[in-house]
Every structure is written in structure tokens, then in C-alpha cells.
Amino acid sequence: MPVAIRSFPRAFARLALAFAAALALAPIASAQPAEGREYVRLKSPVPVETGKKIEVIEFFSYGCPHCADLEPHMQAWLKRLPADVQLRRVPVAFQPSWENLAKVYYTLELMGEDVKLTPDVFAAIHGGNRTNLANDARFFEWAASKGLDRKKVEDTYKSFGIAGKLGRAKQLAQTYNIQSVPTLIVDGKFLISSSSAGGHDNVPTVVDAAIATARAERPKS
């Protein structure tokens, strides 16, 4: 009988420790992004344009402050982009000034400067100086200050190629029924927003989870 009395506290302590460990592990398990929670499967998947690569589309606008807040996290994510994944950025035009900013993005893209200068565009528009790059002349001047050929920038900005890209962007936004930005689409199947991800800083982790699901569902070559 005395032995049983002495062993009870030890058994209780072991049980308490096990319970505490389970509680400690619970947040880790629940923090894993899950389909239907942090990323949502679209009812009708859309064919991708990246061939064998898994496509990630970011619908955004340079004029959107939330997109500006997400940008540092996207930049960090781009530095570790898997070889089988490709990011496509598609500017939206929910208001007239955003259409000019879409032209700014496509001008930089056609000139091969979008990856390098996108953070600078966000900083110019949303930073302390608040430069209105939706104004054509100010954008041309800003681009020249970044070392680009002003005449080439202006010609590209006003080209038919830019008009065609704008039309395609509007069509794609309608196809995916984009209602707000930033919104990300993974492989034409999964939709992610900053709110569904639980904040801008969580978006890359959720995108990675959706990529893993999309990769598992792709036919094995």
C-alpha cells in the first residue's frame, strides 16, 4: 500500500507532462495551411499558361496599399522560388488611375525591369514622397531617374503591345472573378488572399502549401 501511494505522484507527473507536450504541439499542427481554410479550391479550374511549370498568378495593383505591404514578403519568396514554379503578375484596374499603373507594370515588364524596379514603384507611390506614377509624364521622369531611356519608356508605354496586355489582364481577372487585391491563384486551382492566409507575412507559406498540393495532383512525367 505505501508503494502505491509513493508511485501515484510520479504517474500523475508523467501524465501532466504528456498532456503539456500535447498542448504545446497542438498550435504547431493547427498552424499548417490547409485546403479549404488558408487556400480554397476553385469550382472550375483554369488552364495555365506556363506549360510544365506550376503557375502562381498574383493579381495586384501598384496603387493598392495592401499589395505594397505584401511586396516585401513576395520578394523574399521569389528568392527561393522552386525550379518548377513560375510567378506571373497580372495588374488589375478597379479604378481609372490603376489602368495607367497597369501600363507602368507592363512597360517595365517588356523592358525586362519589372522584377528589379517593382519594389521601387511601390516605394515611390506609397512612401514618404508619394509620387503619382499614374501620371504619364511623372512616370517617364521617374523611369529616367532610375537609369532607363526616357524615349524608349514612353514609346513602350504607348505601344499596341501594352494595350494588348491590358486587354488580356482584364479578361483574366474576369475569368477568375477577382474582387479584391492582392489575390493569388496557384496552378489555376487554388485561391489565396492575405485575409485567408492570416496576414501578409503568412502568404508565402500558404502559397508553398498550395503549390505542394498542385504538384502532387499533376500527372507524373
Short description:
The protein is 56% helix and 11% strand. The protein has 221 residues and is of the alpha+beta class. Helix 3 (96-110) packs across helix 7 (160-175).
Account of the protein in words:
It is a single chain. The chain is of the alpha+beta class and 221 residues long. It has two domains: 1-31; 40-217, Glutaredoxin (3-Layer(aba) Sandwich), CATH 3.40.30. 56% of the residues lie in helices and 11% in strands. The protein has nine helices and five strands, in the order H-E-E-H-E-H-H-H-H-H-E-E-H-H. It has helices at residues 2-30, 65-78, 96-110, 114-126, 136-145, 150-157, 160-175, 194-197, 203-217; strands spanning 40-41, 54-60, 85-91, 183-186, 190-193. The chain has a five-stranded mixed β-sheet with strand order 1-5-4-2-3, with helices on both faces. Strand 4 (183-186) and strand 5 form a beta hairpin. The longest helix is centred in the first third of the chain and has 29 residues, at 2-30. The N and C termini lie far apart (68 Å). The model is unreliable at 1-8 and 23-29 (pLDDT under 50).
